[in-house]
Amino acid sequence: MPDTETRPLSVDLADGFWAPRRQQLRDHTLPVILDRFDEAGSLDAFRRMLPGAPPRERRGMWFSDSDVYKWMEAAAWVGRLDLLDPVVELVQAAARPDGYLNSFYDVGPGSQERYRDLSTSHEWYCAGHFTEAALAHQAVTGEAVLLELACRWADHLCESFGPGRDERTDGHPEAELALARLARRTGEQRYLDQARWIIEHQLNAAGLSLQTVDLAGHAVKALYLATGIAEVADATGDPLWQEAVRRLFCTLVEQRSYPTGAVGGRWLDESVGKPYELPEAMAYAESCAAVASVRFCRRVWDLTSDPRALDQIETLLYNAVPCGVGADGESWFYSQPHAVAEVAAESNPWALPFEYGQSMLLSWFPTRRHRWFDVACCPPNLARMFATVDQHVAGLSDSGDLLVHLPLSARIRGGGWDVALQSGYPDEGVVAVDVLSSPDRGQVRLRVPGWAGGAGHIELPTDGRIDLGVAAEWWESDRRVEGAAGTVFLRRGPVVRCVEGLDAGGVDLRDLVVDPRQAPVGAFGRVVGPSAAALHHRLGAEPPVEPVTGLATVPYHAWANRGPTTMRIRFPRIRR
Fold it and tell me: Which of 48, 142, 175, 554 could disulfide-link to 124, CB 3.0 to 4.6 Å?
């Protein structure tokens, strides 16, 4: 992502979609998350390290520091310094003189030794998120108090790890992308060199290289690593690194992402899955992976100017990202299924409480939005994504053009520009642009999304208006996508829509079929007739289909806000 400190544009959102969500984040969600940190022990982990604090056992997951740092980043970007300042004081007290920063390891008698097992400890991961919070804090406040701590940690890391020193690396990527961003802000070359070494060493240890690395394994880790590669590629201009970024991005958009932009086809190891492995009911599609995908795609755009990167960002920002947060601003999806056939509870008498993966899976079915999680990475990660949406609205080209990436209502200032956008996006496609002032060179160029037949930015018409033609349309996925052959799904502009069982009048969503030749309001039908006597049987005559009228669809991002319900995105075509 571009450094806001040096980014010449400021964007004030005024739309009906993201502006209220950002306001809710600022006024409600950030305080709620802070309270739930208190309940879980995430803040107490730092308080116990204050001078004179009585000794007490640490509560929460060993990597919960990272959750606090993500929240800090979000609070900084939206200006909630009243909430942030006391947390900053806690974190300052936890920093060691040598630059090491962690509330779980190396904190006195009985604690675990630092760096004992980097493969699972998340020590670099946590400090990497602290660095991103420090960069945000310095960009917003101009104060260097957290940035200095981040530099101390980075110096400590460079001195402790590397060629000829300790050559282990953290099992969860994050430090490399944070170091590269810190190098951009400070101009310190060795931070960038360290980021580059970490990535090369990680790949080599896995039997990979920049020429062979794939978007595979744990989805969030894979996307953080890809972002780190993109950060280094952007900073160095190295063609080998740039080509790796292009290949990873192509893999993402051509084989590994859901219609909503979500990533992660397997619950097993929270994994990306194989090419085209995108099951619906068992989609893992972690909310954190949606956040990571936006950040990776933004770096791809900065590096390559591939318009598909902005298309993917838009898809994520109107589907998988907002889906992660409930309408109340205080409930969340960790994983995001793309179909729910039953709301009956799952049961497994052999799953034990300590078997976290199985127990978690059982507790999440029937699918519903949750108040909190033992692993609380998604709520603060979504918070920092909501807090930075404005940074994805527009940019400046090298020639001085103002490039409008998202055609939502906003006021854009900077670089000699003062431009007001008016639109009802994403519900409506008409965009009006009022250029209040402009520099001596450059023009306003508005992005026409791929879904609207565009392939990038076009010069603004003389009347300052453009109609992107938002309308309900039937789409289909590549036939190689698991379960997608012969099915269609509904999009309206960038928004993927679904059907919830609450609106189906008792119809089993598995009986719904669609005639895509019809407008959505009249396209649905229901397969009728007696069920087959056997689960598997010879092919017989096609059962009759009766029309289903008045069936409402809702945006995927809004589903499950009325409670647990069945849900479906894809529907079989009616056979004619």
Answer: 175
